[in-house]
Amino acid sequence: MITRDQLEEGTVALLAIIAPAALTAILLQTNSPQREYVFIYMAVVAVIAVIRGLWPALLAAAVSFLLVDYFFVPPMRTLTINDEQDLVNLAIFFGTAGVVGFLAGRRREAQIRAQGLAKELRNANAELVRLNRDQAAAAQAAVRLARTEQQVQLLQQAEQELRDLLATISHELRTPIGTILTDSTNMLRTQEMNTSVRYRIEGIASEARRLNRLLADMLNLARIESGALQLTLEPVQVADAIAAAAERLKRPAPDRTVEWDPKEAGVTVLADWDSLGQIFDNLLDNANRFAPPGTPIGVRVDQHDPGRVTIRVIDRGPGVPVPMRERLFNRFVKGPPTVGDGTGLGLAITRGLVEAHAGTIVLEDGEPGETTFRFTLPKS
Question: What's the pLDDT score for residue 37?
Answer without folding.
Answer: 64
